[in-house]
Amino acid sequence: MAPRTCALCETAKAMLKRPKTGQQICRDCFFYVFETEVHNTITESKLFQRGDRVAIGASGGKDSTVLARVMKTLNERYDYGLELFLLSIDEGITGYRDDSLETVKRNQEQYDMPLKILSYDELYGWTMDAIVSQVGRKNNCTFCGVFRRQALDRGAAMLNVDHIVTGHNADDIAETVLMNIMRGDIARLGRCTAICTQGEDTIKRSKPFKYAYEKEIVMYAYFKKLDYFSTECIYSPDAYRGHARVFLKELEAARPSAIIDIIHSGEAFEVREEVKATQRVQQTCKRCGYMSSNDLCKACTLLEGLERGMAIAGITDRGRKQLEAQGPAPDNLRTIPLFKLPSANPTIAIETAS
Amino acid sequence: MTTISVKVEFSGGLELLFSNQRSHAVTIPSTDPTDSAPTNLQYLITYLRDNLLKERVELFVENETVRPGILVLVNDTDWELEGEGDYVLKDGDEIVFISTLHGG
Ligand SMILES: [Zn+2]
Ligand SMILES: [Zn+2]
């Protein structure tokens, strides 16, 4: 087969077929169109304002590694005027997170961005290794998900940032749309395609890769020789999501536009007011001050269960009742430090690139 | 029998299925013993499955080709531009398999 030339510059050899358009383009044109599309997503959705302090949720995996690189590139090229930080959560998983954090530390030096690592151990007094040894491998993902979400917000508050960006890509969002449909979670379906989410007093979160295909993210990392970590979590990967992912990849193989089509269907669902009304009003947790729809936030409930040796208390209503039957929480119970939203001054020193 | 040598690389987590080794030098016949046609990428995939793969075949091959979600590059070019499985291998080619299915 004779080499084809790039459909854009018409000079260099085409090296990639774009999944979105079928266009065959060269390496340099690919970098340019990929970065420009992310820039367009950012400007069309007005994600940032000059002077914003933005934390990139960095796991050491492909998506967040590419996101850090692209955010740095665009911030310089288009003079966004953003202050960028890397924020990593250390769940305390030996042989998994400790290795991926090494990748993030190298990114810190390569991209010259300050890095903050916040661990479950310092925040909750429990590593995931310790949690799994108490709860086993059945419900451990519930703990991890709740703890990570809150840890990201707390890390962002410590960095005094206005905004967290995450590496969620088009494939991830399409997958979430499918899962919400399959679970009948209509309220979430309405929210999961939003490029930016912000509750009343939560830190803004957004997804600049909302329209970026996973294939292109991986090719970008490969062509730029970016250093990323790609081992699955050793504690039971999310099986349900795994099936949704395989199904989506098969749809994509048959029709590459499937991913964007599913995101568009998710966006097209209009959530009726009655459904929205069933979502509870936000208040703050009576124990730790974090945003919550109950007296206690999910993390405090889970932590109390762990501390009192009844981990199931945070998972099921029945477990909760059993715990309550044992009396109120003891005074010396370990709790999560009080949550404060970002103030005018940074509250902690951050590690800087050496 | 004449042979050709190709360099095969696995990444994105796929290396875990191949003795946790990223790079492999592979020597294969220059023609397919079953039909005497020049050896192509399809033949290489089957060869890797039968000779190098250590575990969980379903994570690499599905319906006689690589599973959806695995990217293949031929000398750094997307295999979709090179005829995919029909690409005829040359001595010294570099073939890269990258899984996109592992965490981000
Ligand atoms: Zn070009
Ligand atoms: Zn709380």
TrEMBL record, chain A:
Designated name of the protein: Cytoplasmic tRNA 2-thiolation protein 1
Residue stretches making up the tRNA(Ile)-lysidine/2-thiocytidine synthase N-terminal domain: 54-232
Keyword Repeat among record annotations: no
GO molecular function (one): nucleotidyltransferase activity
Keyword Cytoplasm carried by entry: yes
Amino-acid positions noted as binding ATP in the UniProt annotation, renumbered to this chain: 57-59, 63, 89, 167, 172
CDD domains referenced in this protein's UniProt entry, alphabetically: CTU1-like
Major localization class: cytoplasm
Protein family per UniProt: Belongs to the TtcA family. CTU1/NCS6/ATPBD3 subfamily.
Pfam family, one: ATP_bind_3
Purpose: Plays a central role in 2-thiolation of mcm(5)S(2)U at tRNA wobble positions of tRNA(Lys), tRNA(Glu) and tRNA(Gln). Directly binds tRNAs and probably acts by catalyzing adenylation of tRNAs, an intermediate required for 2-thiolation. It is unclear whether it acts as a sulfurtransferase that transfers sulfur from thiocarboxylated URM1 onto the uridine of tRNAs at wobble position. Prior mcm(5) tRNA modification by the elongator complex is required for 2-thiolation. May also be involved in protein urmylation.
Pathway per the UniProt entry: tRNA modification; 5-methoxycarbonylmethyl-2-thiouridine-tRNA biosynthesis
Originating species: Sphagnurus paluster
Protein localization: Cytoplasm
UniProtKB/TrEMBL annotation, chain B:
Species this protein is from: Sphagnurus paluster
Protein name, UniProt field: Ubiquitin-related modifier 1
Pfam families linked to this entry: Urm1 (PF09138)
CDD domains to which the protein is assigned, alphabetical: Ubl_Urm1 (cd01764)
Family per record: Belongs to the URM1 family.
Domain of life: Eukaryota
Modified residues (1-thioglycine): 104
HAMAP family in the record: Urm1 (MF_03048)
Predominant localisation class: cytoplasm
Keyword entries, A-Z: Cytoplasm, Isopeptide bond, tRNA processing, Ubl conjugation pathway
GO BP: protein urmylation; tRNA thio-modification; tRNA wobble uridine modification
GO CC annotation terms, alphabetical: cytosol
Known role: Acts as a sulfur carrier required for 2-thiolation of mcm(5)S(2)U at tRNA wobble positions of cytosolic tRNA(Lys), tRNA(Glu) and tRNA(Gln). Serves as sulfur donor in tRNA 2-thiolation reaction by being thiocarboxylated (-COSH) at its C-terminus by the MOCS3 homolog UBA4. The sulfur is then transferred to tRNA to form 2-thiolation of mcm(5)S(2)U. Prior mcm(5) tRNA modification by the elongator complex is required for 2-thiolation. Also acts as a ubiquitin-like protein (UBL) that is covalently conjugated via an isopeptide bond to lysine residues of target proteins such as AHP1.
SUPFAM superfamilies: MoaD/ThiS (SSF54285)
Locations listed in the record: Cytoplasm
PTM description: C-terminal thiocarboxylation occurs in 2 steps, it is first acyl-adenylated (-COAMP) via the hesA/moeB/thiF part of UBA4, then thiocarboxylated (-COSH) via the rhodanese domain of UBA4.
Pathway: tRNA modification; 5-methoxycarbonylmethyl-2-thiouridine-tRNA biosynthesis
Residues in cross-link Glycyl lysine isopeptide (Gly-Lys) (interchain with K-? in acceptor proteins): 104
